Every structure is written in C-alpha cells, then in structure tokens.
Amino acid sequence: MLKKVIFKLGQKLRNPSLNNWFSFLKKSESWTLKELENYQLLKLKELVSVAYNNSKFYRNLFEENGLSPSDINSLADLKKIPIISKEDLITKNKDIQVTLKATKFFKASTSGTTGQALNFLKDEFSDSFNRASMFRGYSWYKVNPWDKNGYFWGYNFSSKEKLKTRGLDVLQNRFRIFNFNDKQLKLFSNKLHDSVYVHGYSSAIYETAKKINRQHFNKPLNLKMVKGTSEKIYERYQDEIKKAFGQKMISEYGAAETGIIAFECPSGNMHINMEGVIVEEINEEIIITNLQMQSFPVIRYRLGDYVKLAPENKECACGLKHLIIEEVTGRIGAIVYGEKLTYPSLYFYYIFKNLAKQGVFLNYQIVQNIKGKLNFFIEQDLSMEHKKLLENEIERYFKKDLKIKINTNFEFKTREGKHKSFISNIL
Q1: Given the DSSP bridges, would you call strands 225-229 and 197-201 parallel, antiparallel or unpaired?
Q2: Topology annotation, domain 1-332
C-alpha cells in the first residue's frame, strides 16, 4: 500500500493529466475500428493545424507542396504530406519545436543507437498519454505500475549517477542489475521471488534467463508479465525465458519521438495504439504520425524499421478492434558490402527466419570489418548438417559475392544497451 501511495504521489506531481488519459484509454478499448479512426482524424486535423500555425518547419513544408490544413479532411489525405526523416528532426529541430501553453515540458531524447541522437521538449499532456498507454498495456496482464519489478536497462553509470538511479528505482518499487557476475545475479534472482513483472532490453532479459537456468537459481513464482522493449524479440528467446520466469516475453513497441506504437495483448497480437499514432506501411517500411505530441510535431516520420501489418479484417480473441502489427521484421540499417555489390542487412533476418522454419533456431551476430567478408558468430554448436543449411541460406541471398567465416559456441557478453544483430565497421 505504501508503495502505491508513493507512486501515486510522484505521478500526481510529475504527470497530473495521466489519470484522465488512462481512464480515456480504458474506455476506448471497447471502441469499434470506425470509432478509433474517427478519433484519429479528429486528432490529425488538430495536430496539422497546430503544426502549420506554430512550427516554421511544417509551415514551409506545407507551402512548398501547395498544402494547407484545410486539405486534410480524411485519413487518406495524410498521404499528401511528404515523409520526413530523423535527419529532419535533428537538423530542423528548433524550427519544428512548438511553444505551447502547457503546464510543463520534459526533456526527451533518443538513444542514438543509429548514430543520430535527437533531443526535444515534450509537453506534459503527451508524456502522460504515453505513460497511460503503457499502463493500459500493463492492465491487460493485471499488473499495476507500482508493483515490485525488475528492470533491465543501462547500468554503466558513474557513482553519482548510480546513486541517483537507485533513488529513482526505490520510488518506483523497481530494482535492476548493475553487473552480471554470479553474486549480483543471485541477488537479483532472489529479489524476483516476490516481484510481479520484469521489463527492459529483450536481449538482456534473455541472457539473464540463460544464466538463471544454468545456475539453477530459484525461479520466481508470481511474475505476471515479462516485457521486452527497444529491441526485436526473437522466437528463440522464448524457451529460456519461460523456463526462467514462467512467462513468455511480450512486446512493447515504440520510440521516444513516436510514443508507444503497439503493445502485445494476452492473445499474442501487437495492437497498434491507435489513439496515439497513425501507422502506415510503405514498401514494408513503417511511417508514423504521433497524434498526441503537439509540442514537437512528428508527422509522417520514417522511423527506420521494417514491419508487416495484419489485414484490417483480422480479428483478435482479446476483443480489441485496434489494428495489428504482425511483425517488426528488422531495423533499416547498415549496408552489407560484397566484393561487387551491396545488400540490405535485412537479408540476415530472412536467412535465420528460413532456418527457423526448418527447426534450426540460432542466436547470432554478424560483423563486417572488410568489404567482401563477413564473420558470423553463433551462440549454439552447429552440426555439419545445420552448418551446411546456414551456408546454403547465405549463398542464396549473397551468391558468391562474400567470403564467410562461421564461429560457433560464441558467448555474447551481457552489457549495457541493445544487442545488435549486425555490426558494420566499414566507414
């Protein structure tokens, strides 16, 4: 009870509009698809008007393309607006930022894992909406945000930052692991005994699950939710995670500049947070419009992920009518350099997906230091048969344009930050 009171007090001080947003989102859970789309159009018109009248960047963008807010009268009209990039958000940052009559603003930033860090001001209303969206997802699993929870996030702090972080963790009934030696891992595992949920980087949760299973630590009995975020969740993670935590890992998908895009329901579908975003799929690439953030408008934004959307008529057993993302297939990232040609790094996703269809589930990382050569690091041991299957899949996509080296029984080090499936060291 005390933890709830502390959490609620902090929430009221930091996010005074959060309760209203949460109540709204719980009501909109029962909306029809048409009602959701009507709300999206209402918010889109409002967003476009605010951006046009208050943001130099968007006014110029509209005028250069012969557009005005009155041209946006349907969700289909959104396609009239040009797509913007992260580079636009960074280089035109001051021209995009809008000063609203909001009670407060928060400094927000992206992680910069793509090599481009973004900083901006987020108004309290949109920040509270985003948190309420997250808490709505928690409610599907009968989890309260003030419940005791384990957190897998960054931990490479200075002593001062570590102390500050621990203080914030106490206020949120949260604990995290700061290093992964056996002693700390056992302490962390013991704290999980009466915890309700764990969340954080999916690769860190997976690596921790493996170590808990190998060390035969006591398994938590009361976990209701294991949530992975900020990274793709691979199917091969699930067996280890279920064994260690008693639950499969579910996915929360979003970004600092877009807010929560989708949250996985107990029936296993990733429902789009339609009250907060409009999602478009163009050539398998996701384009996002953040409907709730008016202080830093993000309209038709190329996030940098490949996705696959479900058909609009797909129904979910959970009853939600919100549209569904079937899969976040990968990050649009570094180019793979052959001796003669270049290739998208998405090929690696398909290579290992094809192997999984044949019953070969591998944890992997590919590194390119020299053009025309690739190093494959595989966590598992490979039989001759499975190694041949991998070689055949690689040749299927890259032909004879790359020399490859396959390293097996590789131990991936659990560390701060995201696990990257492909690392290119070619400038």
Answers
A1: parallel
A2: Rossmann fold (3.40.50)
